[in-house]
Design brief:
Length: 560
C-alpha cells in the first residue's frame, strides 16, 4: 500500500492529525467560529472563519457558529444578522448549528454554583478598584480578598441573591478561588460573574448577573462538544484559566485550545472598537463603506468571496504576529476578477470628440471581446458614431516625451474601431479644452491599416449618442500610515483623498440595467462593480481595484 496523503498545511493541522492518530477527543473534529455580536466582521475574522470551517470540511468534522454574547451593553441583533449574512456570503454554512452563549446562561449559572459548592468560588464585596489593587502586578504578587474564606453556605446564599437582584450593580462579584500569587495574572482569583442591569438582546431582563467571557467561553465550547478551540494569540495566557475551569468542573474530553496569529493588514485598522469609531464619528459612510476592511465593505467594494478565501489560504496560519501587505489581498482579487469580469468601455473624465468626416447619420456596430482571457465569454456589439467621448487624460495639446496617445496632428487607434487623427482643438473662453476635431480613416475598421502603418497607442471611447451616464466612486487607502493602529488617534492619519466621486461619466450602452454587485473590467481603468446606491435612472459604480498596483510603481519610483 502506498497511499499518499497531502502533508499537513500548518501547525494546527499537525496537531489535529496527531489527535486523530492518538484518539484524543474521540477522533472527532468539531470547531466553532465564536464572534461577539458587537460589530461587523472584518477581513481578520474571515481568516478565522476560513480556518474553522475549512478544518472541519477537510477532516470530515463540523463547525458551529456561536455568538459569544455575554456583554449585553455592547451587543445588538443588527450585528447578529450582519454576521450571519457575511459568513454565508463567504461561502460557509453552519447548517442547524447556530448557538448563542446566552442559551447557556442557566447552565453556566449552575456551573458557578458547582464551583461554590466545591469551595472553588466565592462572592467578594470589594469594589472594582479594590479588586484591581488586590490583584497585584506582573512583578508583585496579589493579596487575598478579606472575603476569600466565606463559607460555602454564605457564598451560595449571596450568589443566589445577586441573581435575584438584591444588590446594586458593581457591589459584589463572584470570583474563582485560584491563586493570588500566580505569575499568570489571569489565575489571580478572576471575576466569573458580575452584576449588570442591562437588558440582553436575547434574554431581555431575565438576568441581572452576567458571566465573564473567560468563564463562558471554555464552558460553551465544552457544552457544544468542541474538540479544537482555535483562537488568536492574545488568549494564550488565558488557556491555563480555561483549563482550570474545565478540570475543576470535571469536563470529559475537554476542548483543546490552539492559538494562532491574528491577521493584520497594512494601511488598515482591524479592531472592532476602532472601526466603530470610524462609523460613529462619520469618517466613513457606514460599516459597509467600500473603504472599510469589513466583509460588508469589501463586498460593496466589489471583492469576491473566492478572492478572500484564496487570500486566507495564501497567508496561512502561524504562531507569530505580523502585518500582511494589503497588496497581496488586491493581487488575489485581480486574479479572480481577471478571469470572470467582462470587459467594457467607460469614460470617467470625458472629452468630446467630433469625427468630422464620419457620416452624421451612420451608426456602426463594432464587435468587441467580452474577455480576451476567456473566449467562451463571447463578444458583443458596441455602437460607434460621429461624436464620441474619450478620456481627457488621453489627449495632450503639448505632449511630453513618451506620451504616445492623442495630440494635435497625431493618429491613434480607437479600440475595436478606427484610427483617428486630431485635426483641431476647441477651447472655451477660459482656454479650457472642450472638444477635439478629428478625422477617421475608413480603411482601418477593426483597428488595422491596410498599408501597414502603425500607431503607438490604443484608447477606449464611448459613442456620445448611445452612452449612458453614471456616477463613479474611486477609492484610495483609508489611512496614510502603514500601521495606523500604532497612532494615538487613528483619525489623525486618515487619507483625505480616500474617496473621489466622479459624476460626469459615460458607459457603453451594454451596461444598461447592470445589476447591483455585478463586476466589470473597464478597459484600461480597473475593475468596477455596481453599487447599491444605483437607481434605474442612474448607475453608480465603485472602483474595486486598479488594473495594476500603482502604489508599488510609485513607491519604486520614489526609491530610485
Ligand atoms: P476585534 O479585536 O477586531 O474587536 P475580537 O477578537 O474581539 O475582534 P470576536 O468577535 O471575539 O472579535 O472574534 C471572533 C473570532 O475571530 C475570535 O476567535 C477571534 O480570535 C477571531 N479574530 C478576530 N480578529 C481576528 C484577526 N484579526 N485575525 C484572525 N482572527 C481574528
Ligand atoms: Mg474577542
Amino acid at each position: 500500500m502506498n497511499e499518499t496523503k497531502p502533508a499537513p498545511a500548518n501547525f494546527i493541522e499537525e496537531i489535529i492529525e496527531e489527535d486523530l492518530r492518538t484518539g484524543r477527543g474521540d477522533r472527532r473534529i468539531h470547531t466553532r467560529f465564536p464572534p461577539e455580536p458587537n460589530g461587523y466582521l472584518h477581513i481578520g475574522h474571515a481568516k478565522a472563519i476560513c480556518l474553522n470551517f475549512g478544518l472541519a470540511a477537510k477532516y470530515g468534522g463540523l463547525c458551529n457558529l456561536r455568538f459569544d454574547d455575554t456583554n449585553p451593553s455592547k451587543e445588538d441583533p443588527e450585528y447578529v444578522e450582519a454576521i450571519k449574512e457575511d459568513i454565508r456570503w463567504l461561502g460557509f454554512d453552519w447548517d442547524d448549528r447556530l448557538y448563542f452563549a446566552s442559551d447557556y446562561f442557566e447552565r453556566l449559572y449552575e456551573f458557578a454554583v458547582q464551583l461554590i459548592k466545591m469551595g472553588k468560588a466565592y462572592v467578594c464585596d470589594l469594589s472594582p478598584e479594590e479588586i484591581k489593587e488586590y490583584r497585584g502586578t506582573l512583578t508583585e504578587p496579589g493579596r487575598e480578598s478579606p472575603y476569600r474564606n466565606r463559607s460555602v453556605e454564605e457564598n451560595l446564599d449571596l450568589f443566589a441573591r445577586m441573581r435575584a437582584g438584591e444588590f446594586p450593580d458593581g457591589s459584589r462579584v463572584l470570583l474563582a478561588k485560584i491563586d493570588m500569587a500566580s505569575p499568570n495574572l489571569n489565575l489571580r482569583d478572576p471575576v466569573i460573574y458580575r452584576i449588570l442591569r442591562v437588558p440582553h438582546h436575547r434574554t431581555g431582563r431575565k438576568w441581572c448577573i452576567y458571566p465573564m467571557y473567560d468563564f463562558a467561553h471554555p464552558l460553551s465550547d465544552a457544552l457544544e462538544g468542541i474538540t479544537h478551540s482555535l483562537c488568536t494569540l492574545e488568549f494564550e495566557d488565558h488557556r491555563p484559566l480555561y483549563d482550570w475551569f474545565l478540570e475543576a468542573l470535571g469536563i470529559e474530553n475537554p476542548p483543546r485550545q490552539i492559538e494562532f496569529a491574528r491577521l493584520n493588514l497594512s494601511y488598515t485598522v482591524m479592531s472592532k472598537r476602532k472601526l466603530l469609531q470610524l462609523v460613529k464619528e462619520g469618517h466613513v459612510r457606514g460599516w459597509d463603506d467600500p473603504r472599510m476592511p469589513t466583509i460588508s465593505g469589501l463586498r460593496r467594494r466589489g471583492y469576491t468571496p473566492e478572492a478572500i478565501r484564496d487570500f486566507c489560504e495564501r497567508i496561512g496560519v502561524a504562531k507569530a504576529n505580523s502585518i500582511v501587505d494589503i497588496a497581496l489581498l488586491e493581487h488575489c482579487l485581480r486574479e479572480d476578477l481577471n478571469r470572470r469580469a467582462p470587459r467594457v468601455m467607460a469614460v470617467l473624465r470625458p472629452l468630446r470628440v467630433v469625427i468630422e468626416n464620419y457620416p452624421p447619420d451612420l451608426v456602426e456596430e463594432m464587435e468587441a471581446l467580452n474577455n480576451p482571457e476567456d473566449p467562451s465569454m463571447g463578444t458583443r456589439k458596441v455602437p460607434f458614431s460621429r461624436v464620441i467621448y474619450i478620456e481627457r487624460d488621453d489627449f495632450r495639446e503639448d505632449p511630453p516625451p513618451k506620451f504616445y496617445r492623442l495630440a494635435p496632428g497625431r493618429e491613434v487607434r480607437l479600440r475595436y474601431a478606427y484610427f483617428i487623427k486630431c485635426t483641431d482643438v476647441i477651447k472655451d473662453e477660459n482656454g479650457k479644452i472642450i472638444e477635439l476635431r478629428c478625422t477617421y480613416d475608413p480603411e482601418t475598421r477593426g483597428g488595422r491599416a491596410p498599408d501597414g502603418r502603425q500607431v503607438k497607442a490604443t484608447i477606449h471611447w464611448v459613442s456620445a449618442a448611445h452612452a449612458i451616464p453614471a456616477e463613479i466612486r474611486l477609492y484610495d487607502r483609508l489611512f496614510t500610515k502603514e500601521n495606523p493602529a500604532e497612532e494615538e488617534d487613528i483619525t489623525a492619519c486618515l487619507n483625505p483623498k480616500s474617496l473621489e466621486v466622479l459624476t460626469d461619466c459615460w458607459l457603453e450602452p451594454s451596461l444598461a440595467g447592470a445589476p447591483v454587485g455585478a463586476h466589470y473590467q473597464f478597459e484600461r481603468l480597473g475593475y468596477f462593480c455596481v453599487d447599491p446606491d444605483s437607481t434605474p435612472e442612474r448607475l453608480v459604480f465603485n472602483r474595486t481595484v486598479e488594473l495594476r498596483d500603482s502604489w508599488a510603481k510609485i513607491e519604486k519610483k520614489g526609491a530610485e
